[in-house]
Amino acid sequence: MNLRIPGPTPLPPEVLAAVSQQMISHRSGEYRALHQEVASGVQKFFQTKNDVFFFTSSGTGTMEAAVVNTLSPGDRALGVTMGVFGDRFMDVAKAHGIDLTILRFPMGQAADPEKVAEAFAKIENCKAILITHNETSTAIANDLAAITKAVRAKRNPLFLVDAVSSMGNVDIPVDELGLDVVFTSSQKAWMAPPGLAMISVSPKAWEASKTATCARYYFDFAHMKKYHDKHETPETPAISTLYALQAALKIMLKRGVKETFRYYEGLSLYTRTVLMQNGFTLFRMRIFAVP
C-alpha cells in the first residue's frame, strides 16, 4: 500500500530498516546518544534554541501538554480555528476550564491576521492564543508571521501552535517568530511511524508553567525536563520510532533544512499543476496551501 494521506506516511527503505533494530534500555548510554542526536536534529527543523521534548503520544497529547503547562482554569485565551483539528485544540482547552473565546474561519479559508488581532484586543487579560498552523483536514495554512506581528502590535500573549502536519516540511522559524509552544508528531512530515510527539518550549512558556495550575502528570514539562537534560524521558519512550526518526533526519539533514522545505514546496507545486492540467480543481486557496 502506498498511502497518500497527511499521515501516517509511507516510510523510506532506510527508515523501515531502522525500525527493525533490536530494543535497547532507555536508561543506557546507547539510548542517551540516540535521544541527543534526534533532539538536536529536530531542533534544527524547528529553528529553535528552545527545549524540544519527546512525548510518547499522538499530536493530540501535546495539544493537552501545551494547554496544561501554560494556563490555569479560568485563564482567558483566544482560540483560532478553521477546521476539524483547530476545533479539537479548542475542545482540549475547554476541557481544562480555560475561558476560551473562539474565532472561527470557514473551512478552506486561512485566518485573517487583522481579525485575529482585533478579537484578541477585545479580550481583557488574554493570556494566550491557540492556533493551528496547518489545518490537516483542508491543507490550509495560517500566516504565522503576519498573525504574530498584528497581535503584538496590541499586546504580547503566549502563542501555542499546532504544527502537527506542517513542521518538518514547511519553514516555521520558531525563534524568529517568537512562538512559545509548538508541537508536531512523528507520522507526518518526519517520515516515521506514529508514536512520538515533539514539542518546543520557550523561556516565556517556562515562566508561565511556574504558575499554571491545570492538573498534569504525564505531560508535565518540569518533570520531563529533569530527564531531558540527561537525554532521557521519564517513562519508556517509543524506541523504534526514535530509531526511525534518526534515520529520517539523516535523509533530511543530508538535503539541508531550507533545501528540504524547498524540495517539498516543489513537489507540492508539481502535484497541484498536474492535477489542474488534468481537469481537477483545488478545494483550498492556493496562496495558503501547504506542501
From TrEMBL:
Cofactor(s) needed, names only, are: pyridoxal 5'-phosphate
Q: Which PROSITE patterns match?
A: AA_TRANSFER_CLASS_5
**Occurrences of domain Aminotransferase class V (ranges):** 6-279
Q: Report the GO molecular function annotations.
A: alanine-glyoxylate transaminase activity; L-serine-pyruvate transaminase activity
InterPro entries under this entry?
A: Aminotrans_V_dom (IPR000192), Aminotrans_V_PyrdxlP_BS (IPR020578), PyrdxlP-dep_Trfase (IPR015424), PyrdxlP-dep_Trfase_major (IPR015421), PyrdxlP-dep_Trfase_small (IPR015422)
Q: Which UniProt keywords apply?
A: Aminotransferase, Pyridoxal phosphate, Transferase
Q: Which GO terms describe its biological process?
A: glycine biosynthetic process, by transamination of glyoxylate
Q: Which family does it belong to?
A: Belongs to the class-V pyridoxal-phosphate-dependent aminotransferase family.
This protein's name = Phosphoserine aminotransferase apoenzyme / L-aspartate aminotransferase apoenzyme
